[in-house]
Amino acid sequence: MRHLLLTSFSLVLYALLSSCAPNAKKIKEIIENDPSIVFSAIEKNPEQFIEVVNKAIREAQRKASEKAQQEEQAQRDNEFKNPLQPEIEPDRAILGPKDAKVTIVEYSDMECPYCARGHQTIKEVLNAYPNQVRVVLKHLPLDFHPKALPAAKYFEAIARQSAEKAYQFKAKVFENQSELRQKGEKFLEETAKSLGINMAKLKKDLDDPKIMDRIQKDMAEAQKFNIIGTPGFIINGVSLRGAYPFASFKEIIDRHLQNN
């Protein structure tokens, strides 16, 4: 066996030294014919092998990240030129000045932890741009979040009484997601009561099929814009898919404001 390994290594060395550049095909054939060459090298230097593999993984991740960023920037530049156009109905609940220069459409799932993070970022955005940004919540309840659809229905039913209270409801749900998961609709009802909502009207509106129609329409629109996970945002026609930090929103908002 020792003689065989030495012979194999000699062949590899010959392949490396017999031309200006290693002949990959020859080396591949040698190793395929005798994989013990690789196994022996790994056994003798396991730590070095792991270090090389980890380095290769990090390099592959770096290149993949750079490629994704380049593709995302190219898509973003294209959307600045050809903005996405979500529908905003006249009776839609809006948070912020109705005449704001920048509109953020938020596709959200109130049981999603990433949406809760996105909710906090939107608060930062509104604090930074109190007169220039408005937000429109749309719904994308995911199948594996069973409390998300009832929460979306409550939001829309409350919005029929007060847009302001609907967004207060949204904030309370996101800030107390553990209670939503534990108590379900009981928590939603308690939260609505705490906001002084007319509960008789609320319960009647929850049964109105138009509310479910609106939610389904939101879901279809999100799919049209290739927003399949939550949260998703469209900022004056430019999309962000995921719980991006404030800086990402700021970059897009500032570019819109500079162009206006």
Task: Describe the 3D structure.
The protein has helices at residues 2-17, 24-33, 36-44, 46-81, 113-128, 148-159, 163-175, 177-183, 185-194, 199-206, 209-224, 246-259, and strands spanning 94-95, 102-108, 133-139, 232-235, 238-241. The protein has 260 residues and is an alpha+beta fold. It has 3 domains: 1-44, no CATH class; 54-82; 94-259, 3-Layer(aba) Sandwich (Glutaredoxin). The chain starts with a helix and ends with a helix.
Which features does this protein show?
260 residues; alpha+beta; Glutaredoxin; 3 domains; five-stranded mixed sheet; 9% strand; disordered N terminus
Brief overview:
64% of the residues lie in helices and 9% in strands. It has 3 domains: 1-44, no CATH class; 54-82; 94-259, Glutaredoxin (3-Layer(aba) Sandwich).
